[in-house]
Amino acid sequence: MKALLLIAATTLSLSLSAETLHLGDNVRVIAINGKPVPAYVDTITLTKGPQQITVRYDVLFEADADSHAFIRSELHQLQFEAKGSGDYYLNAPTPLTAKEGKMLANQPQFTLQDQSRQSVNHSLKSHTELFNQMQPAGNQF
């Protein structure tokens, strides 16, 4: 009986501290805190605390009824602190032309907002930037 109460209390506390990340049309999350995310979901449950989101700009551009192409950015690492129970919204602009889509893929612009639609402080770095930070400066010998 005590075990059942403990499980119920834990489940209730987890559901009270759970947050939801809503993804915009042009946002593709690959992983959260190192755990893979299924392709093309539009909401993800988060827990309170630091979040490391592997994300890319990903848009299906239709030139006409018979031709379309995916325009994608390289992977980026978005980091922020989930403060408590609530919703977050991660969005990226929608291009009007393929040229604009390619520009956005080369320099993605993600916005992160809370449930009041206020901007949430976050950092965003491409995987290339992160890799270059890990490289030793100059010859170490």
UniProtKB/TrEMBL annotation:
InterPro entries: UPF0319. This is DUF2057 domain-containing protein. Pfam families: DUF2057. The keyword Cytoplasm does not apply. Residues 1-18 form the signal peptide. It comes from the Bacteria. The keyword Cell inner membrane does not apply. Transmembrane segments: none annotated. Belongs to the UPF0319 family.
